[in-house]
Structure formats: C-alpha cells, structure tokens
C-alpha cells in the first residue's frame, strides 16, 4: 500500500482564490511528521510547512496552512490568495519516527498546480 | 549561503559507463540522502546516511553505491549505467536526532543533477 497518496495529478486555480491540495497517508507508527514541498519549474525543492502527529493545532506559515485530520489520515495543504508564482509541483512527504529510521521521508507523487489570471 | 551543492548539474552517459555524483553540504547536518525523481513517481530514496560513517539502502538501491566521505560530503556512484537510470537525482541533508527537537527538521535539497543514459 502506498504510504503517501496525492490523488490530484493536476489542479487549476484562479489568481487570488484559495486552493486545497489533498494528501492522505498510511502509517502504523504512533509518531510521525508530515511535510509539504514546492518544486517550481526551475527544479529546486522548497520546504513549505510541517505538521507533527502530536501537534494540537494545524500548522500555518504565511499563506500556507495544513488541514490536518488525524483520524482520516489526511494532511491537506491550503494555499490562500493564490499568486502566479504558486504555479509549481507540490509534494507531500511523511517521516515515521520509530519505523522510518533516521529522518527518511516518503514522498507522494505530487500535484501540479497552475494558477491562472 | 550555499546549502547543498550537487555536481554536475547535467550529464549524458553511454550505457555501461560509470560516474559519480557529488554532493556537499555546509549546514553541519548529520544526515544526508540521495533521491531520484522520475515523471509520475515523485521522489524515491536510493540511499541515505543517518550519520557520518553509516549508510543504508533506501527504496531503490539497485545499481548504485554510495560513500559518506566525511560529514559534509556524500557521493552516489553508478558503476555500469543503464537507460533505466535516466532520471533527475537530488541530494538532501538534515539534522538528525531523537526527541522533539529534531522532529520538525526538514530536509534541505540541492538543485539536482539531470542524468541521461543513452
């Protein structure tokens, strides 16, 4: 079974609108962390936001927020007030603290976001 | 403010040739990683080094070897390149430790090496 599932290969959003990128995960580890990365067309991987499994509140970083639903095993990324520069590939990734070993990350297949005027 | 530096950025090889991808980080991180990125498959871990002196296989280690030369440097070697190894290769580094202090430490990535094998 896939550990990280991103079911939206591609998404379109109008500039200034909010968009939600879906991520579901599968783990039996009681302690884990979820990361979102952005990969623009230039290719670099940019860390956006982190959510720990024991965090009481949903993570927020500027225009990025995480809609973390632990019981559903989902960690959706919400981008508010989309900008043209948000057009990129977005990856969800998970770190499993006890079973994962080290600080290994398992990545989803990504969602390509296109922001339109 | 270099972060993670990968060399080369582009390379074309013929089947059967060997080469080494170099990676260096200047953030004093303990852990380093090699990933490959293929269309539609996200990033897959090839090998990682949790700390200097240790290396372990990731999800797709076949056809690759690694060397953790020192705390800063982690190289990836293709001994006999195959067309299936055509990919974009990323090196990453992170702090590692037990406990809450390290739990939210992200991995920092290099800019990638685009490798084509003919």
Write the layout of secondary structure elements.
The complex is a heterodimer of chains A (117) and B (118).
Chain A: E1 4-5, E2 10-14, E3 19-21, E4 24-25, E5 32-39, E6 46-52, E7 60-61, E8 64-69, E9 74-79, E10 88-96, E11 106-107, E12 111-116
Parallel strand pairs in A: 2-12
Antiparallel strand pairs in A: 1-4, 3-9, 5-6, 5-10, 7-8, 8-9, 10-11, 10-12
Chain B: E1 4-7, E2 10-13, E3 19-25, E4 31-37, E5 43-49, E6 56-57, E7 64-68, E8 74-78, E9 87-94, H1 100-103, E10 108-109, E11 113-117
Parallel strand pairs in B: 2-11
Antiparallel strand pairs in B: 1-3, 3-8, 4-5, 4-9, 5-6, 7-8, 9-10, 9-11
- Count of extended strands of chain B: 11
How many strands, which pairing sense, and closed or not: the largest β-sheet of chain B?
A: 7 strands, mixed
Q: What best-fitting shape of chain B do the alpha-carbon axes yield?
A: globular
Percentage of residues in helical conformation of chain B? under 10%
Total helices of chain A: the number is: 0
Q: What are the secondary-structure elements of chain A, in order, as H or E?
A: EEEEEEEEEEEE
Our estimate of the beta-strand percent of chain B is: over 45%
Are there runs of chain A of 5+ residues with pLDDT below 50, and where? none
Query: Which H/E pattern describes the elements of chain B?
Result: EEEEEEEEEHEE
Instruction: Tell me the helix content of chain A.
Output: under 10%
Low-pLDDT windows of residues of chain B:
none
What is the terminal-to-terminal distance of chain A?
A: 38 Å
Number of strands of chain A: 12
Q: Quaternary status of these chains?
A: heterodimer
Task: Assess the beta-strand content of chain A as a share of residues.
Answer: over 45%
Describe the structure.
The complex is a heterodimer of chains A (117) and B (118). Chain A has strands at residues 4-5, 10-14, 19-21, 24-25, 32-39, 46-52, 60-61, 64-69, 74-79, 88-96, 106-107, 111-116. Chain A has 117 residues and is mostly beta strands. In chain A, strands 2, 5, 6, 10, 11 and 12 form a 6-stranded mixed beta sheet that branches. In chain A, strands 3-9-8-7 form a 4-stranded antiparallel beta sheet, with no helix packed on it. Chain A starts with a strand and ends with a strand. By secondary structure, chain B is mostly beta strands. Chain B is built from 1 helix and 11 strands; from the N terminus they run βββββββββαββ. In chain B, a hairpin with a 5-residue loop joins strand 7 and strand 8 (74-78). Chain B starts with a strand and ends with a strand. The interface between A and B is medium-sized, with 26 and 29 residues.
């Amino acid at each position: 079974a896939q550990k990280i599932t991103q079911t939206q290969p591609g998404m379109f959003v109008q500039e200034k609108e909010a968009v939600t990128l879906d991520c579901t995960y599968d783990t039996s580890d009681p302690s884990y962390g979820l990361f979102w990365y952005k990969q623009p067309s230039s290719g670099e991987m940019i860390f956006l936001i982190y959510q720990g499994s024991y965090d009481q509140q949903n993570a927020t970083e500027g225009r990025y927020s995480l809609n973390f639903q632990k019981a559903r095993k989902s960690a959706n990324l919400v981008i508010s007030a989309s900008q043209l520069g948000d057009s990129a590939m977005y990856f969800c990734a998970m770190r499993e603290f006890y079973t994962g070993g080290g600080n290994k990350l398992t990545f989803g297949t990504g969602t390509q976001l296109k922001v339109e005027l | 403010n270099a972060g993670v530096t990968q060399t080369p950025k582009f390379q074309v090889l013929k089947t059967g040739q060997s080469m080494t991808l170099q990676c260096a980080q200047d953030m004093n991180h303990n852990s380093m990683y090699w990933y490959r990125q293929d269309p539609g498959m996200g990033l897959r871990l090839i090998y990682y080094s949790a700390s200097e002196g240790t290396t372990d296989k990731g999800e797709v280690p076949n056809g690759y070897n690694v060397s953790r030369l020192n705390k800063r440097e982690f190289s990836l070697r293709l001994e006999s390149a195959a067309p299936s190894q055509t990919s974009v290769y990323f090196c990453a580094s992170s702090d590692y430790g037990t406990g809450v202090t390290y739990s939210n430490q992200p991995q920092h990535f290099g800019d990638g090496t685009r490798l084509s094998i003919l």
